[in-house]
């Protein structure tokens, strides 16, 4: 038997939106997850790279934020950022 301790175990209904779009020369495939657990943020799941992050309109504009979360270059991040402001 494994020796571990659970600190939190909750089930919550979520809303998930799947969006595939292109911006500039890049194609993006994301799942947008909304839950009370995330407060006013949206969990973005890049379905291609399997990377995820919690963002809102403020964090989208933080320098280097999308580049770091999704391991992308500055040009792709700017194209993505422009679309995400409309989508979240």
Provide an overview of this structure.
The chain is an alpha+beta fold and 88 residues long. It has one domain. The chain has 3 helices and 4 strands. The protein has helices at 57-60, 65-70, 74-87, and strands at residues 15-23, 26-34, 42-46, 51-55. The longest helix has 14 residues, at 74-87. This is DUF3055 domain-containing protein.
Topology at a glance:
Elements: E1 15-23, E2 26-34, E3 42-46, E4 51-55, H1 57-60, H2 65-70, H3 74-87
Antiparallel strand pairs: 1-2, 2-3, 3-4
Structural key phrases:
single chain, 3 helices, DUF3055 domain-containing protein, 88 residues, four-stranded antiparallel beta sheet, alpha+beta
């Amino acid at each position: 038997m494994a020796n571990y301790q659970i600190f939190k175990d909750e089930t919550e209904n979520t809303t998930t939106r799947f969006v595939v779009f292109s911006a500039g020369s890049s194609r993006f495939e994301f799942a947008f997850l909304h839950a009370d657990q995330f407060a006013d943020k949206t969990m973005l799941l890049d379905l291609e790279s399997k990377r995820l992050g919690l963002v809102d309109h403020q964090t989208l504009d933080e320098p280097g934020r999308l580049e770091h979360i999704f391991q992308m270059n500055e040009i792709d991040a700017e194209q993505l950022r422009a679309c995400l402001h409309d989508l979240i």
